[in-house]
TrEMBL record:
The protein's name: Fatty acid 2-hydroxylase
Family membership: Belongs to the cytochrome b5 family. Belongs to the sterol desaturase family. SCS7 subfamily.
SUPFAM superfamilies: Cytochrome b5-like heme/steroid binding domain (SSF55856)
Lineage of the organism: Eukaryota, Metazoa, Chordata, Craniata, Vertebrata
InterPro entries per record: Cyt_B5-like_heme/steroid-bd, Cyt_B5-like_heme/steroid_sf, Cyt_B5_heme-BS, Cytochrome_b5
Superkingdom, taxonomy of origin: Eukaryota
Zinc found in the keyword field: yes
Ribosomal protein as UniProt keyword: no
GO BP: any one term: ceramide biosynthetic process
Function summary: FA2H is stereospecific for the production of (R)-2-hydroxy fatty acids. Plays an essential role in the synthesis of galactosphingolipids of the myelin sheath. Responsible for the synthesis of sphingolipids and glycosphingolipids involved in the formation of epidermal lamellar bodies critical for skin permeability barrier.
Localization per record: Endoplasmic reticulum membrane; Microsome membrane
Length: 137
């Protein structure tokens, strides 16, 4: 995520759903990181991260048994994807988006059009509607 973008917000439930080898998210406070791509190269092994996926890892980052360096903390920033929604509005926003999408689909002018049979509309009497005529010089 670039610094100029506004952060995306995710609910606790959504963060908790990303707890597999194929999609692994962790938190530090309210900051969310998608560390799926880092699992294979984590010096302590992927099992350590997977066992903490969907959870706040501030205590693990501070140690014991191993205190992570400032470099490790900076490295983690490349995996930042958004913020934890602490006031419950992420679910409301998602529901609103789904409602808007449904309304847009129902009121779209395209939804009012009948289906077009390309075999009969584009080719009447087996002649194309557009023909190609080379330019004469």
């Amino acid at each position: 995520m670039s610094p100029s973008e506004s952060p995306r917000f995710f609910s606790e439930k959504e963060v908790a759903n990303h707890s597999t080898k194929n999609s692994c998210w962790v938190l530090t406070g309210t900051r969310i990181y998608d560390v799926t791509g880092f699992l294979r190269i984590h010096p302590g092994g992927e099992a350590l991260i997977l066992s903490r996926s969907g959870n706040d890892i501030r205590m693990e980052m501070a140690g014991p048994p191993h205190r992570h360096s400032e470099n490790a903390r900076r490295w983690m920033e490349q995996y930042y994807i958004g913020e934890l929604d602490t006031d419950g509005s992420a679910d409301e926003i998602q529901t609103a988006r789904e409602r808007k999408k449904t309304v847009d689909e129902e009121t779209s002018p395209i939804s009012k059009c009948s289906q077009v049979n390309l075999d009969t509309v584009c080719f009447e009497n087996h002649s194309p509607l557009l023909t190609y005529s080379p330019r004469q010089s």
